[in-house]
C-alpha cells in the first residue's frame, strides 16, 4: 500500500502514523510537527509565540492516552515505573573473565561487571535479556531460557557468558520486554555524536547455550562507535518517537544528537 499524500484522520479527530513496526496516535503539538515536516511549513521561533497551554485529552475509547513531549518540556508526566521491577526473581551476573552466573542475590565478586535483575514478570517468553557490545551488536536472549537451559546451578559461574572477541567490550546488559526500545548513542569518526532508538521485537532471539555469539547488528561499526545504551519501556514511546529507527536506517547511527529533531528525546532521557 502506497503512503498517503496528506494526513488521514480517524473519525475526523484522531491522526495515526506508522512508527517502526507499529501504529501510534499523534496528539497536540506532535500533529503540528508532523504536518509541518511533511508539508515543508516553517513556523515562527518558539520564543516569538506564547507558550502553549497544557494539552488535556477527553476520554477516547478508540486509543489509550499517550504521553507527549514537546519543546523539550513534558506536557504529560511519564507513566509510573512498572510494578514488575519491584519483585526480583533472580540476578544474572556477568564477570570480567566472560563467565556468567545466576542466583537470588546480586553477586559481590570483585570482578563482576553487571548484576542484571530478572523480575517475576520477566519469566515469560516475551521477555528479553540484552547483551550490548561496543561494536554495535546486541545478543538477544530470553532470560528464563538462559537460566533454565544454561545457568541451571545457582551460584555457579559458567563459561562463554558473552562475546569477548578482540576489540569488543560489553557496554551494558538489560532485561526488558520485546516491545521495549533500545536507545543507542554513538560517535562517528568525525567526532559527531549520534542517537537512535530501536524496537527489540523484530530481532532474532539467540540460543541460550550460545550466549557469546556476535549477535544482531544495531549500528554498523564502520559507521559509528557505540558509546552508551539505555532501555526505554514501550509505554514511553511517545517521548522518543522522533528518534525511532526506520527501515532505511536499520544499521545506521540515527540522527545527530545536537539536531532539533533529537531535542525532545534528549531532554526526556536526561530526566
Quick tags:
single chain, 271 residues, mainly beta, 4-stranded antiparallel sheet, 3 helices, globular
List the total number of helices. Answer: 3
Question: Stretches where pLDDT falls below 50 for ≥5 residues?
Answer: 43-75
Order of helices and strands: EEEHEEEEEEEHEEEEEEH
Please indicate the percent range of residues in DSSP E strands (runs of 2 or more): 25-35%
Helix content range: under 10%
Biggest sheet features: 4 strands, antiparallel
Radius of gyration: 21 Å
Helix and strand composition category: mainly beta
Tell me the strand order in the biggest sheet.
11-9-10-14
Number of strands: 16
Average pLDDT over all residues: 82
Task: Please tell me what the overall shape is.
Answer: globular
Beginning-to-end CA distance, first to last residue? 39 Å
Amino acid at each position: 500500500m502506497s503512503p498517503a499524500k496528506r494526513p488521514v484522520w480517524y473519525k475526523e479527530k484522531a491522526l495515526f502514523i506508522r512508527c517502526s513496526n507499529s501504529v501510534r496516535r499523534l496528539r497536540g503539538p506532535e500533529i503540528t510537527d508532523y504536518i509541518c515536516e511533511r508539508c515543508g511549513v516553517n513556523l515562527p521561533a518558539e520564543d516569538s509565540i506564547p507558550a502553549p497551554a497544557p494539552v488535556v485529552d477527553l476520554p477516547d475509547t478508540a486509543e489509550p492516552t499517550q504521553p507527549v513531549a514537546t519543546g523539550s518540556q513534558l506536557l504529560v508526566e511519564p507513566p509510573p515505573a512498572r510494578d514488575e521491577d519491584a519483585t526480583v526473581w533472580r540476578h544474572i551476573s556477568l564477570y570480567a573473565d566472560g563467565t556468567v552466573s545466576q542466583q537470588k542475590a546480586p553477586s559481590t565478586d570483585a570482578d563482576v561487571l553487571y548484576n542484571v535483575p530478572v523480575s517475576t514478570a520477566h519469566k515469560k517468553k516475551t521477555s528479553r535479556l540484552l547483551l550490548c557490545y561496543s561494536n554495535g551488536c546486541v545478543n538477544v536472549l530470553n532470560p528464563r531460557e538462559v537460566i533454565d537451559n544454561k545457568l541451571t546451578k545457582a551460584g555457579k559461574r559458567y563459561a562463554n557468558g558473552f562475546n569477548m572477541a578482540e576489540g569488543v567490550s560489553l557496554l551494558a546488559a538489560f532485561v526488558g520486554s520485546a516491545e521495549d526500545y533500545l536507545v543507542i548513542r554513538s560517535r562517528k569518526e568525525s567526532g559527531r555524536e549520534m542517537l537512535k532508538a530501536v524496537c527489540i521485537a523484530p530481532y532474532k532471539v539467540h540460543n541460550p547455550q550460545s550466549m557469546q555469539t556476535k549477535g544482531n547488528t544495531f549500528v554498523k561499526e564502520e559507521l559509528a562507535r557505540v558509546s552508551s545504551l539505555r532501555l526505554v519501556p514501550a509505554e514511553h514511546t511517545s517521548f522518543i518517537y522522533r528518534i525511532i529507527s526506520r527501515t532505511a536506517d536499520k544499521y545506521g547511527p540515527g540522527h545527530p544528537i545536537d539536531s532539533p529533531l533529537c531535542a525532545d528525546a534528549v531532554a526526556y532521557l536526561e530526566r
